[in-house]
Amino acid sequence: MADHEQIRLQKYLADCGLGSRRFCATLITAGRVSVDGAVVRELGTKVVPSTSKVICNGKPVSREASVTLLLNKPPKVICTSDDPQGRTTVLDLLEDLPERVYTVGRLDFMSEGLIVVTNDGDLAHSLMHPRHHVEKIYKVWIDSPIGFHQLQKMKRGIPSQGETLRVLNIDEGVHTRKGVEYTITLGEGKNRHIRRLMEHFDKKVFRLMRVAIGPLRVDDLKTGEWRRAKPAELKILRQAVREARSETENK
Asked: Are residues 119 and 144 in the same domain?
């Protein structure tokens, strides 16, 4: 980036680790951000990172070194940065981390598995943008097998709360005392997507775990553990985003 190149304020705030671009936009419209001494509420505002003095909630902000983490979220942990009810958050699991980071996408309270945590605004925006449809893979354990016709309906799409819930692929696995295991691949994930699908077919979910986001996999990360993403992983993740974007644009 050139020294005096202008970028949108919400992108700059995201690059500084304050949150997603959407969240940073709410900070701006709420009047919590000033640029060179003047409060800014317009989302089209641009800044020059090398010279603009940006303050959010009374504190100067600046870009930090880019960091991206992979975390295996336990059940009963929430993905927001803080919780009025005092529940454990993902950021509580990263209490020794010096950089400010935020989660990319969410898993609900009882779900577990792979979460990307970063301060890389561009990466977060790419992963969260609904057009890009980076595939995500889940394991779900339910109380009884899903019938053939039910599986076909899941692939075609089920209407729910004004949305269409569908899976790209679903494979039946082993039957154990913990339930019938299925591996589900989603393109675009909606809120409580898999749980709502199972509720539609009167299936009880015993456990739900995300095992992959694009080329990233939870692999040997134990519950509650995290590690920094490797450069090679980030490279293939960005390539997956580009391929998903290209595929969408060519449809």
From this structure: no
Residue 2 located in a structural domain: no
Question: Same domain for 141 and 209?
Answer: yes
CB within 8 A of 69, min separation 6: which ones?
A: 94, 97, 101, 116, 117, 118, 226, 227, 228, 229
> Alpha-carbon Rg of the chain, whole angstroms?
20
In a domain, 1, yes or no: no
Q: Give the C-alpha separation, 191 to 198, whole Å.
A: 13
Yes or no: say if 49 and 7 are a contact pair by the CB < 8 Å rule. yes
Q: Give the CATH number for residue 56.
A: 3.10.290.10
User: Amino acid identity, residue 39?
Assistant: V
Residues 6+ apart with CB under 8 A from 186: 135, 136, 137, 138, 167, 168, 193, 194
The pair phi, psi for residue 99, each rounded to 5°, is -80, 150
Same domain, 204 and 233: no
| pLDDT at res. 3 | 52
Which residues are known catalytic residues?
108
DSSP classification of residue 21: H
Residue numbers of the domain that contains 178: 136-213
54 within domain boundaries: yes
Assessment of whether the complete model's pTM goes beyond 0.90: no
Please say whether the beta carbons of 182 and 171 come within 8 A: yes
Rounded to the nearest integer, the mean pLDDT of the chain is 89
Q: Return the sign of the alpha-carbon dihedral for residues 68, 97, 64, 56.
A: positive
Residue 230 in any domain: the answer is yes
Q: Which of 13-17, 122-126, 144-148 has the lowest mean pLDDT?
A: 122-126
Same domain? For 111 and 87 the reply is: yes
Fill in the DSSP letter of residue 94: G
Q: Domain total for the chain?
A: 3
SS3 (DSSP) at 77:
coil
Give, to the nearest 10 degrees, the angle between helix 121-128 and helix 21-29: 110
